[in-house]
Amino acid sequence: MDLTYSHTEKAFRAEVRAWMEANVPSAPLPSFDASREGFEAHRAWERKLAEGRWGMVTWPQAYGGRALNLIQWLIFEEEYWRAGAPLRVNQNGIFLLGPTLMEYGTEEQKTRFLSRMASGDEIWAQAWSEPQAGSDLAAVRATGRREGDDYVLDGHKIWSSRAVFADWAFGLFRTDPASGRHKGLSLIFFPLDAAGVRVQPIPQIDGETGFAEIFLDDVRVPAFNRLGEDGQGWSICMATAGFERGLMLRSPARFQMAAKRLVDLYRAHEPECAPETRAAVLQSFMDAEAYALSIHATASRLIAGGHIGAEASTNKIFWSELDIQLHRTALSILGARAELMRSAPAAGDVGRWLDGYFFSLAGPIYAGSNEIQKNIIAERMLGLPR
Fold first, then answer.
1. Is the separation of the CB atoms in 132 and 99 below 8 Å?
2. Among candidate residues 138, 382, 367, the one with its CA nearest the CA of residue 243
């Protein structure tokens, strides 16, 4: 891995930085989980990105991208987070389903879905988990019954991120009623406004509705909406999980910028901090840099023709634990004021640290619980017995 940027990469960084400085909103957008207004404001930002072909820079130009490599994507992410740009409301689509669709979709499916995904015209929710199938995804009970050129979907999905306001969802359904566990599953797309779909918001600890339950009752969708072959859903979902755990969903720039903010917070409060706080701040900063180097190495390997394997699980454990450590350190610096809402008169520099801490607690659970990731590491990387 060569850490020296080429002239082309430096020029690209300058282009990204100039565009961000000219286009990033001067004030934060309202939360996309709190209201339809906030959600649509973020959709408008996605469209602004698409106008400059910044929606997903690694995608082919035909689908709204720039056909750039992963190192250039990492550069883009660094400048995106440096500029304080809005969070990506369509992350389930562009970071998870999009790469999977590139690999397993037909040309007709790519043409139908990818450009609308990149432009923000269609926002996606993830509909994998069920009340009895969370970390144990192979236990899904939702069914997809084939009737001619259609599937009829029935079941109950839960913890579906972005589903309250999104347009589409992708979910895992048992299409072979005689199958069990990992076999007989298919990945199927369905519009969230289809007849028979009911979406029930799930309030988070902060009152916002980042998740929802989805109830499906005889929901009819065309077989065109199945990704890959019938019964291939498990292997496709594992590919999507690799993107979620290993590279795309949590770019290192996210944690690097948070670590820099943590350093600034510590410097502003150093006189009243406990002696061990300095070490915790330094550890968070070093871990964020280590994660960045690891992802650059992974990106370099992929560019050279390699693949993401079981090591995606080590990445997932590392960034999820880093996120908690980093935010806990920030709250310890702020002391009792850390419990204040940002709008409180005495909030001062509290910022979004408390919000970030609440969200970080979900990190060891979503994208496959860390306990499951440790099993994967033990069995597939270390060769230990089940």
1. no
2. 367
- CA distances from residue 203 to 128, 135, 158, 327 in whole angstroms, order as listed: 19, 21, 12, 22
List, for residues 44-84, the tens digit of each pLDDT value: 999 999 999 999 999 999 998 999 999 999 999 999 999 99
Predicted pLDDT of residue 281: 97
pTM: 0.86
Domains of the chain: 7-89 (no CATH), 125-232 (2.40.110.10), 250-381 (1.20.140.10)
Q: Which residues are catalytic?
A: 244
CA 65 to CA 33: how far, in whole Å?
26
Residue 236: partners with Cβ closer than 8 Å, 6 or more residues away? 100, 104, 187, 227, 228
106-145 burial code (b ≥16 CB/10 A, e <16):
eeebbebbbbbbbbbebbbbbbbbbeebbeebeebebbbe
Residues making up the chain, counted from first to last: 386
- Count CA within 13 A, CB hemisphere, residue 32: 22
Residue 346, class by beta-carbon neighbours within 10 Å (0-12 exposed, 13-18 middle, 19+ buried)?
exposed
> Predicted confidence band at 307 (pLDDT cuts at 50, 70, 90)?
confident
Q: Is the dihedral of CA 204, 207, 209, 212 positive or negative?
A: positive
Strand bridging mode 185-191 / 143-147: unpaired
Does residue 366 or residue 117 have the better pLDDT?
117
CA 38/CA 36 separation, integer angstroms: 5
Q: What is the pLDDT of residue 241?
A: 64
- The tokens 């056909």 sit on which residue? 67
Contact 220, 183 (CB under 8 A): no
- Are residues 361 and 206 in contact, defined by beta-carbon separation less than 8 angstroms? no
Residue 362 dihedral angles phi and psi, to the nearest 5° = -80, -15
Joined together, the tokens standing for residue 342 give 């940002």
